[in-house]
Amino acid sequence: MRSQPRKLAALMISGLLVTACGSQPPAPVSDSSCGHQLSGAPSEPKSGVRLTGVSQAADCAEVEITNSGNAAAVYTITITSVGSSKEAQSGSQTMPAVGAGQTRKYSVVLGKLRPAAGNTMQVKISQVRSVPLAEAPSFGGTCPPSGARLYADPDPDAAMGLRDLGIHLENCGKRPVHLTGYPQLELLDEDHKPVPEVKLLQASGPPHPLTLKPGERASAHLVWRNTTESDAALNLPYARLRANPGTAPVMITPEFDLGTTGKLTLHPWKKDQP
């Protein structure tokens, strides 16, 4: 038994009030259904994902993912708790890959979501991002067949409307990796379609070809301004990234908020110092 009683909060899904247990520790993503009886009617689908219920203990919610594409995909789902008048908190989790044409249900931990004192809390899916499994960034574990891990920082550094996103490459293989200059970038909209109207600029100064020995790393930067001069701001969630022209792509989710500038500057690869 716990030494102190759990603090209870109220939580609603689709208008149904259920008891929320406010001190559950985080748990790993799992198949449905939360280990408890579920309450609440299914929500409307958002990008192939819908909320199908909340456990009576309210330490998790069940989501149903339908992959209508033609390739397996990895989904990152953001669930937001809404207080009496405004959105309070959000929490994101990445689900295991869902095969093409498949529908799977998974549990999502709600332990980090808390309502404001004295308020009820409504849970909703606020954002869905999907990346083809074959293009998912590699952060650890088995080295990719390319012999290199390619990924971006989770979030850009931001100050006074200026955004700076780090791009990283690690030679985790047994052979040298050669970099020719700049990373290759293709910006994509919410449907993973290319957006050619964005101007990709190269930072001043000539790039220098690099060779990374096994275990060595290199970094580059993507820089843009969130300057908005009208209502037609451009927001692009995805980008397809390559270390060199013609190499295997990785899809990242930088959430480019380009404002109305429509410009993004690429900085060349530079070897990381040990």
Secondary-structure blueprint:
Blueprint: E1 8-13, E2 16-21, E3 30-31, E4 38-39, E5 49-55, E6 60-66, E7 73-82, E8 87-94, E9 103-109, E10 120-132, E11 148-152, E12 157-159, E13 162-171, E14 177-179, E15 184-188, E16 199-202, E17 210-212, E18 217-225, E19 234-236, E20 238-242, E21 250-252, E22 256-259, E23 263-271
Parallel strand pairs: 1-10, 16-23
Antiparallel strand pairs: 1-2, 3-9, 4-5, 5-6, 6-9, 7-8, 7-10, 11-13, 12-13, 13-18, 14-17, 15-20, 18-23, 19-22, 20-21
Total DSSP helices? 0
Percentage of residues in DSSP E strands = over 45%
CATH class of the largest domain: Mainly Beta
Q: Work out the radius of gyration.
A: 21 Å
Low-confidence stretches: 1-28
The description of the largest β-sheet is: 6 strands, mixed
Counted beta strands: 23
The portion of residues assigned to helices is under 10%
Question: What this model shows, in words?
Answer:
By secondary structure, the chain is an all-beta fold. It folds into 2 domains: 8-133, Immunoglobulin-like (Sandwich), CATH 2.60.40; 137-271, Immunoglobulins (Immunoglobulin-like, Sandwich). It has no helices and 23 strands. Strands 11, 12, 13, 16, 18 and 23 form a 6-stranded mixed β-sheet that branches. Strands 2-1-10-7-8 form a 5-stranded mixed β-sheet, with no helix packed on it. It has a 5-stranded antiparallel β-sheet with strand order 3-9-6-5-4, with no helix packed on it. A hairpin with a 7-residue loop joins strand 20 (238-242) and strand 21. The radius of gyration is 21 Å and the shape is globular. It starts with 7 loop residues before the first strand and ends with a strand. The model is unreliable at 1-28 (pLDDT under 50).
